[in-house]
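Support case: user asked for a sample of complex input and structure output to validate their parser. Sending the pair below.
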Amino acid sequence: MEALLDGFVVTLSLDNLFYCFVGVLLGTVVGILPGLGPLTTIAILLPITFKMEVTSAIIMLSGIYYGVAYGGTVTSVLMRIPGEASSVVTCLDGYEMARKGRAGAALGIAGFGSFFAGTVGVIGITFLSPPLAKLVLAFGPAEYAMLMLAGLTMVTYMSSGSLPRALLMAAFGLLLGTVGSDPLNMTPRLTFGILALGDGVNLVPLAIGLFGLSEVLFMARQRPEDMKILPPPSRLLGFLPSREEAKRSVGPVARGTVMGFLVGLLPGGGAVLASFLSYGMERKLSKNPEEFGKGAVEGVAGPESANNAGTAGAFVPLLCMGIPANAITALLLGAFIIHGVVPGPTILERQPQVFWGVVASMYIGNVMLLILNLPLIGLFVRILEIPRAYLTPMILAVCLIGVYSSSGNPADVLIAVVFGFVGYGLRRYGFDLGIVILAYVLGPIFERSVRQSLAISDGDPSIFLHSYLSTGFAIVAAALLIAGLWPKKKARPA
Amino acid sequence: MMHRRTVLRSGTALAAMTVAAPAIAQSSKWPSREISLINPNAPGASTDLTARIIAQALEKRLNATVIVKNVVGGAGALGPTTLAQSTPDGHTIGLVAISSHIAVPNMMNVSYEPWKAFDIIGQVAALRYGVGARADGPIKSIDDLIAQGKQKQLTYSSNNVTNVVAMFQLAKLTGAKFRWVVFPGGVESVTAAIGGHVDAVIQTVTEMRPQIEAGKLRFLASAAEARWPDYPDVKTLRELGYNAVTNGPFGYAFPVGVDPAIKERMDKALADVMKDEAVTSQITKLGIQAIYRNGKDYAALLKSLETELVPILKETGMAKKPA
């Protein structure tokens, strides 16, 4: 505790407060801009920090990372373009809320949920780091395989339509996930000799195509009277959710926070996975599952909390074990090392001021983000007042620029356009795009970990039940599957 | 088939010559705009961090902006392909390594000919590899690893075919059975080893050091040509009596056909950068060895590594099937 107070002393210096602010501000901006992600931003800024004091440098770079999960929501809700990979799932219900005039409420709930999850996440880092870090090591390929299997069974709950349609979309998502290089021996698969597909279909062009561009196509075909988006309340506090919405959000925020934090700990986990799993979970637990995809506030509150908690969770293995959970924390690890700090169990003995300084800065940074983001909501929702004739081409431009800037690869723009049409066609016939993305995200991790497991066990499938953890996940997966396939009872009379 | 190849080749040479002609006029004005450095790896990778250090140092010497462009994709093929296809006017350089010259061309169909498409400027660094096992596990030395590998098949983790050369050689030399389990990243590999999911790991210093420092990973041997300076007591595999080495050199090249005057100035600038103590110490801090070789020597080194790697690619099923 005393150490944390020392950390606050470090952070509260004028310099560090400034760098913390710069970090979270940049994070918010990067989050809002589709395509430009934290990875690129941090990499570009890294050389600039070479001359900075080590704690300041890490405080700023970390601020960018956790600030992103705040900003990513904005375009998802207002334009159905995911600002960040971790906000893809927010497009589903956030945008529908906006269409009903609840854009401010969606952003407000996302903001509060983010703040709650971010802060609880930091408290988690403060008190639970050492024991939780051990959990990370227990996760081998077999445990992953079973966790992903449990995640994939959620597909059966995510659909509002019939089961065969859901499975069809899941198969499509899995198929998309297999494009690229074979995860073990790198043989190109389903690339049709196209070099740009060698690493598979990237998430950014896929998500922007399926969600953003398909929406532009929809708008183009709508009759003017159908295009009305209810104007958001223009009162000063118009972003405040209604009492009913707030009440319905409490559970999803709390669950999203806990689940997001735990998923964030896992290597390869982090904010993206956390948001998808939270969405699936909320849909399953909701009393009104039929509202999902049509503007359910739970579908925003859960994932938007989960992605922030996931971001915080990823700091635990990074700081305590020197194990980055994803590409961004791997880059932060590089930044630590360049500055002569070796994260890991020894960091608390050797450089406590760095560890606690960064942790303390995250408490302050989250407060800054809340103060920074809430007033901006009023400004952002006014985007919706722009006449459709101007807004639609703007969305189109933002989508295409976003895709291009994510990789600098023109082929990705083409891929996004193709998936724009695919998404349009699928939505037209009532297929659920959320399932496609979920299967696409989880499928490749499932395949890789299954094959790694079998390589380790020399083909013996009993490896999937070799530990309590993997057996536990396997049981969860089986239970979810049986419950999901069980013929649904007729709706009870209300 | 042979005939078509030759035609293609001479076509490329002709194209290079026509592009090179106006380049000569440009040499006095070079660099006339920013220079792009193409890196086929993601931001934050060892090669990326090194590239950013080198780019900064080159800027001062060339009086031009040098920007690192991460051309990631195509399982590593997009970067070298883009480099090979860019205009040889001296304003594009890119990373060349085992991946661009040996691994990628042998694993998939690429549009460039690795040994003809580039004018190599020089090597700047080499990744240092080592073999490790979890600290509280049954393997306490390389001898343990070999002895147990003779009794039953052991598994080890690594993320890249470049890394595993030493383990393949070790298996061949001793008759022990080691199975490579591919992980998507270096750190994931190390984590799998300390979690006990695989028996051993072969990765770079950068990825292993945090866990060695923490006492979770036992550093069994250096798989490089020399010992790691931070761990002078740990012997190399060669010193332990096994002629097994993993090399991880990387450097930079122009696309072929750059004006020799420009090439010479770039060669000098890079050589000068690599004499700069500030640059080499920053690279060393990353756990990477700062080594300079000129273009000719570096090309020769890469060529010599090809004979080691190609059989491994075949054995693991990674080599592309003959068309």
